[in-house]
Design brief:
By secondary structure, the chain is an all-alpha fold. The chain has eleven helices and no strands. The radius of gyration is 18 Å and the shape is elongated.
Length: about 210
């Protein structure tokens, strides 16, 4: 795929959704970090229901520590793998208090040192909370990048590096959200909704679904 095609793809995605946002509910970097930690193998809707119970009670590292592990589990038990997630979140809260004065760090290295935080989660926090033009490659972005020919790669790191190289500068800040939304609602896994896709004529996918 050439640079003109890539530019037009993001121009159309921007025109459709000028100000894309994560579908997770959050108001502070710590709330976003918490929501993302809880989101593994869970839907955003399910996470939002849990955080709607948790955040009014505890939305800082100090407050979650005061809640205690059992108290935390009680608020998030509707989410899959809640035991492991609660333990990771509690450990993360202790590290934030001990090493970062309770604040969410703004560097990848410090973020990835937190329990349960990998490269993808760190990229989400850096991009969404702090406005740094990173691209967190999840299953949706991996699929869209490969299927469309936008940034094909064998693994998420390869796709991420290609996107960082090829996404035009003016679109890089929001590319993460546009690609997730496109993969979630249009370029879906089993039967992509090609007839209603606004970038179908720019896509290199050879097996487009018919109307």
């Amino acid at each position: 795929m050439n640079a003109d095609k890539r530019h037009e793809i993001f121009a159309r995605l921007q025109a459709e959704t000028p100000h894309p946002e994560t579908e997770l509910h959050w108001t502070t970097p710590f709330e976003l970090l918490t929501a993302v930690l809880l989101s593994a193998q869970a839907t955003d809707v399910g996470v939002n229901k849990a955080t709607a119970r948790l955040f009014p009670v505890a939305n800082t590292p100090e407050a979650i520590i005061a809640l205690g592990l059992d108290g935390l589990k009680a608020h998030i038990r509707t989410i899959g793998l809640y035991n492991t997630k609660a333990e990771n979140l509690m450990k993360t809260c202790h590290l934030l208090v001990e090493k970062h004065s309770g604040a969410v760090p703004r560097t990848r290295k410090a973020l990835e040192a937190l329990p349960g935080v990998g490269r993808k989660t760190a990229n989400v926090i850096l991009n969404t909370a702090f406005g740094i033009p990173t691209i967190a490659v999840d299953t949706h972005i991996f699929r869209v990048a490969n299927r469309t020919g936008l940034a094909p790669g064998k693994n998420v790191v390869e796709v991420e590096q290609k996107l960082l190289r090829h996404v035009p500068r003016e679109f890089k800040r929001d590319a993460h959200h546009w690609l997730i939304l496109h993969g979630r609602y249009t370029c879906v896994a089993r039967k992509p909704r090609c007839p209603g896709c606004l970038i179908a004529d720019l896509c290199d996918y050879p097996e487009k679904t018919a109307p």
